[in-house]
Structures are given as structure tokens and as C-alpha cells.
Amino acid sequence: MDIAAKISSAGEAVGAVRQGMVWVPGGTFRMGSEKHYPEEAPVHRVTVDGGYFWSVDDDGPVRAEKLAYGHAFVLLASASAMQAGHPDAAGLMADVLSIIEKHFWEPGLERSRDELSRDFAPFSTYRGMNANMHLSEALMAAFEATEDRRHLHKAGSILGFFTLGMASENG
């Protein structure tokens, strides 16, 4: 089969895993893959609560975890789109900020959880530096796009944890 036959009429790849953050509405999907990584097998039906997923194929999310790292990139993209004047940027920013605030952000710790299950439940105590670093960058970009100081405050709390907390504790 030539490559043209693998492209749908809408111009999207058919049967391919698409990487990057993808919005998936809630519902029941076939999840997994027999063709890619062993940890993605077997293909099975799962109900998801919607949200942004790292990769999807034609049947829905390939993996169900929701990652702060990826949500930070959606926020950064929305801030860039807002500064470029894209008409849908504010809605995208409001959506991803509400997910970050409601599910990832830990007010007592003033930083983000790293990963959540498909229903947004925490399943790990890991609080990744990489995810929080990218989130602080995205929050600063959101501040630049909106001048909303709450974004700057959150970015500052993350950076304060690293510079005043971890760095001073570890020499």
C-alpha cells in the first residue's frame, strides 16, 4: 500500500500513532497497541474521563496516564498562540489551566504532581523536576500573554522550591 492510501480524506494519518498532547473527549475506547511498545499491549477497552493524552491512535488513547509535562506544553502553546492573536488561544489556555489547577497543582507543596491516572487520580508520589521546570516556563509565558500575576506567583513558587529548597539542602 502506498503512503497516499494511508491518509484519510481529512488529511490525517490513518492507523498511525500520533505523538504530542491530544485532546480526547471522555468515553469508551480501545486502548493499547500490539505494534509499538510491549507495555502498551494488549489492546483492551477502557473508559476515560477525557483530557489531554500524550499519544493516540485511531481507537483513542494509547496510554492512559495524564502527564504534567505534556500539560505544561499545552499551556506554553496556548500562551504563544495568544500572543500571536489566535482566536482560540484563550479558550485553550483556560481549559488547560483549569486541568492543571484542579488536578495537578498541589497547593500545600506549591508545585505539580508529575502524573495522574486516566481518571485524574494520583498514583505516584513522584514530583518531577522536569515537569515542574517546564510548567514554570509555561506559567511565565502565560503571565506574559495575560499579565495575570497568579501565573507568575505559581512559577515563582516552583522555582523557589528548587533554588531555596532543593539547592540549599543539597549544597
Q: How are helices and strands ordered from N to C?
A: EEEEEEHHEEEHH
Return the average pLDDT rounded to an integer.
80
Specify the helix fraction band: 40-55%
Radius of gyration: 18 Å
Number of helices: 4
Q: SS-based structural class? A: alpha+beta
* Percentage beta strand: 15-25%
Q: How does the overall form come out from the CA principal axes?
A: globular
Q: Give the biggest sheet.
A: 3 strands, antiparallel
Low-confidence stretches at least 5 residues in length (pLDDT < 50)?
Answer: 1-17
Explain what you see.
With 171 residues, this protein is of the alpha+beta class. The chain is 42% helix and 20% strand. The strands form four sheets. Strands 1-4-5 form a three-stranded antiparallel beta sheet, with helices on one face. A two-stranded antiparallel ribbon has the order 2-3. Helix 1 packs parallel to helix 3 (129-146).
Task: Give a quick precis of the structure.
By secondary structure, this protein is of the alpha+beta class. It has 4 helices and 9 strands, in the order ββββββααβββαα.
Write the layout of secondary structure elements.
Blueprint: E1 18-24, E2 27-31, E3 44-48, E4 51-57, E5 60-61, E6 66-67, H1 68-83, H2 89-104, E7 105-106, E8 111-112, E9 115-116, H3 129-146, H4 149-169
Antiparallel strand pairs: 1-4, 2-3, 4-5, 6-9, 7-8
Helix pairs in contact: 1-2, 1-3, 3-4
